[in-house]
Amino acid sequence: MSAANESTESAWPAILTWRAHDDSRMESARVQLSGNRIKAYGRIVAAAAATNPSFSASYDLVTDESGATKRLSLSVTLAERDRQLSIARDEENMWLITDHQGQTRASYEGALDVDVVFSPFFNALPIRRTGLYRRTDSVNLPVVYVSLPDLTVKQASISYSSLGPDSGDGIKLHSPVAQTTITVDDDGFILDYPGLAKRI
């Protein structure tokens, strides 16, 4: 068993940290678990790259008891400005998006999860909610997809496919930005997302 696996089997809350494979970004999140419920506060720090300017982003996430996202607050700092985004899901599974332009409300095709570009943490949300890290299955899920650093929000679909935790094959992922095989720890949190980041 790897040291990374052991770190999340210890008592919660825990701090999980990832570093981009090209060393251009880091993400660190304080994660609290209560059953399937997750509370997380994290930060992403990115150097300037071909795809993005330098930025810092912080997030505050709360899920419900099933692991579905209930609310997410995001704040992004760029050299020239700060910007905030608030996302909340109501009892009718409608999403209220609040940003510098005002408020919008939409279903996002019934999405229960939010995915944030550049963040390995957010991939754990659907993997844990569906129990995919514990069983053999394939799922194709709508998500509320947030781009950084511009904080644009759109609907996207991400598919995950697992041969089970004993296969050693990881979980295959198809998203708007990647087709790869990720590995997770015993709690469903990302250990390695090739091309994005690895937990340290």
UniProtKB/TrEMBL annotation:
InterPro entries with a match to the protein in the record: Glycolipid-bd_prot_put
Pfam families, A to Z: Glycolipid_bind
Identification of the protein by name: Glycolipid-binding domain-containing protein
Organism: Mycolicibacterium sphagni
